[in-house]
Trafficking protein particle complex subunit
Amino acid sequence: MPIYYVFIINRAGGLIYDYSNAPKCVEIELRFESAIDFKMESIDSRPTVVLGERGGVGIGYTVVKINGKPLSELTDITGSSFASLMQFLGNEENYPLSLHFARPALSTNEKIILSSMFHSFYAIGVQLSPVAASSGIRVLETDTFRLHCFQTLTGMKFLSVSDVNTPNLDHFLQRIYEHYVDYALKNPFYSLDMPIRCELFDSNVIQTVERYEKFGVVSQ
């Protein structure tokens, strides 16, 4: 069962490592006979839907093609800025046309923000627990994915985002923690709570993910 992301969050809520194995998002084509009924804004230099939903396209989706051609090939028609693109889409003379939408991969800034938010939600979960010494958020389940969290005694958080049918990943995350201890903490050039830049750690995380996806186990 696929594991889409692995995140490591330090004690202050900062993202210090991420591994991405998310599937490429499928493009959705919508045909418009008149001006689009989405509200759009420029986010990370991409024309992004911020309000509205239609045909499987909703908030967070970006325009990647117009009439089958990538935006990068249409700058002579739509212009190179977001304002000029919206002016083109607002002109009734350019219709009918088809737009291709796709949900982009998480940017580095988005990963940092989401990690900080989860750190806060985890603390809220501990505070809301009616039982003392709560373990906090360990599993979040949606209709499309499951998020597992393993927190160490020192407050480090190891997260995985996986397929919704994936069973408990405690052993998997503990294995990632072991790699962190072996290849990051024992590295004399690594500073605690700082981003992890270690090829041995990267390769062992990838091997562990691939082994789990293929065999359902985390050890050889």
User: Anything to note?
Assistant: The first helix runs from residue 75 to 78. Residues 28-102 form a domain with the Pdz3 Domain fold (CATH 2.30.42.40). The chain has two domains: 3-23+107-215, 28-102.
